[in-house]
Amino acid sequence: MTEVAEKVQKVLDEVAGWNLLEVRDFVKAFEEKFDVKAQAAAVAVAAPAGGGDAAPAAVEKTEFDVILEGVTDPAKKIPVIKVVREITALGLADAKKLVEEAPKPVKEGVPKEEAEAMKKKLDDAGGKTSLK
């Protein structure tokens, strides 16, 4: 392994031990420092053959972000924190901070079925959520 690859591996090993909020903060700081945007590359779609009359096909979104918009009732805050901890594996303090600072993403880039299940759990616990 080269020296550069070893340095990269050390950073990856360090990041692997972080929680979701720490990784998100790191990515934001990285984007600001190096003036880059961490996002998936755009995929070019070929135009339909045979003329310009065909309407473009809508691309169905496959990955969603589960956003906690808030808590419907202050008495439901603790059950929502418990569900956030279950979904994210965050510690109590980090989960509480996420709930109190809503709107915040709880989980990003998850498949539709998984995102809908998370949304239902959060809504059932008293959270107000959305999928983006």
CATH class of the largest domain: Alpha Beta
**DSSP strand content:** 15-25%
Question: Major beta sheet, specifics?
Answer: 3 strands, antiparallel
Question: What class would the helix/strand composition place it in?
Answer: alpha+beta
Q: Write the H/E string, N to C.
A: HHEHHEHE
What is the CATH T-level topology of the largest domain?
Ribosomal Protein L30, Chain: A
Low-confidence stretches: none
Number of strands: 3
State the strand order across the main sheet.
2-1-3
Summary keywords:
132 residues, alpha+beta, 5 helices, 48% helix, 17% strand
Structure summary:
By secondary structure, the chain is α+β, with helices and mostly antiparallel strands. It has 5 helices and 3 strands; from the N terminus they run ααβααβαβ.
